[in-house]
Structure to design on (94 residues):
């Protein structure tokens, strides 16, 4: 998985968080409308890795899910491929 950077600078690959989240309007519009915020991408494909804001815990943590990019692009439908972790902290092993 590739996490978007938060360096405050312009990166040549377009992976700076502030730009990458909104880079592809065909992905970000249905994602945000369904309560998902992308912060990374699957390494092997264009699938977005997102926080699922619909299932926020009392601690404020959200599950991390990988979504099917084709369902988003072709049908504007959110389809969870896998829940990667119950929270970002669990994802990074903190």
């Amino acid at each position: 998985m590739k996490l978007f950077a938060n360096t405050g600078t312009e990166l040549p690959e377009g992976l700076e968080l502030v730009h990458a989240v909104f880079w592809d309007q065909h992905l970000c519009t249905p994602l945000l409308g369904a309560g998902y915020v992308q912060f990374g991408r699957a390494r092997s494909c264009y699938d977005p890795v997102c926080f699922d804001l619909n299932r926020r815990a009392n601690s404020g943590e959200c599950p991390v899910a990988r979504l099917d990019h084709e369902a988003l692009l072709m049908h504007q439908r959110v389809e969870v491929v896998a829940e990667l972790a119950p929270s970002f902290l669990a994802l990074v092993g903190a």
User: Anything to note?
Assistant: Residues 1 and 42 are 4 Å apart (CA to CA). The chain has four helices and five strands. The beta strands are 2-3, 36-41, 48-52, 64-67, 80-85. The first strand starts at residue 2 and ends at 3.
